[in-house]
Amino acid sequence: MSSENKDAEAAGGEVTESSATEIDASEPDKVSLTKADGDESTDGDESTETELPGGEFQEQKGGRKGSGLLVAALLIGVLLLGSIGAAASVYFWLYRDDQRAFGLNPFSVGSVDSRIDDRQKEVRDAASGGTVALLSYAPETLDKDLANAKAHLTGEFLKYYSQFTDQIVAPAAKQKGVKTEATVARAAVSELHPDNAVVLVFVNQVTTSKDRPDPALATSSVVVKLTKTDGRWLISEFNPV
Question: pLDDT digits over 7-56, tens only?
């Protein structure tokens, strides 16, 4: 074999070996790529399978959070209703008497101040009128005056006044000609309740008699307690101070 053929064969051998080497190298690469593709699909499947439980967990977690918010909202509502109920109970137990005393309905509308003023005026007028009737009389109209005074009284004080006027006032007024006239300078409500009230009354009283014909002025103050009886404010106590 000539040297050229040897060189050619050697060159051919080199080409063949190189080609084989390239083929051998490419086949594993292909296998590797196939496996990689398989691995990707497998990983994709595994990823999908992993996401499903994860998604369920997220849904359960979201459901639990929603349930927690609902429970919290319900608890807040219950506590709010409880506080409203407690406030209403306090209101009715502590203020109901005053509302009734003033003649007020807690659910009515209108001027509360004006209705309070009306009720206080009613009590002041009853105390003032009763005081004037008690301390005003004359010999000529004694029976009528005493009857008028008794119409403003109630309870034990009515009994006391009847006994006192019969035994002391009436005889003195007739024998000595005692005449007295009272006026109220001022009256202020001290206490006001559904069935009773206390009023401080400032009185001016002018008295004359056969022995002392010149008018004598006396000023005094009286604590008048009234009790509501059959819709009327009547005097149940009369205490000079």
Answer: 444 444 444 444 444 444 444 444 444 444 444 444 444 444 444 455 55
Residue 139: predicted pLDDT = 94
List C-alpha distances in Å: 153 to 108, 126, 220, 233: 33, 10, 20, 9
Taken in order 63, 67, 68, 72, the sign of the CA dihedral is positive
∠237-189-95 over CA atoms, to 5°? 105
Cα-based distances in Å from 121 to 86, 117, 235:
34, 6, 15
Cα 51–Cα 53–Cα 59 angle in degrees, nearest 5: 100
Distance CA 24, CA 29 (A): 9
On average, the pLDDT of the chain sits at 74
> What is the separation, in whole angstroms, between the first and last Cα of the chain?
160
| DSSP string for 209-220 | -SS--S-EEEEE
Q: Which residues contact 134 (CB under 8 A, 6 or more apart)?
A: 149, 152, 153, 161, 182, 235, 238
pLDDT, tens digit, for every residue of 47-77? 444 444 555 545 555 555 556 666 566 666 6
Single-letter residue type at 142: L
| pLDDT reading at 119 higher than 80 | yes
Distance CA 146, CA 161 (A): 9
- Report the pLDDT averaged over residues 212-228: 96
DSSP-derived secondary structure letter, 153 = B
Q: Which residue has the tokens 């007739």?
A: 174
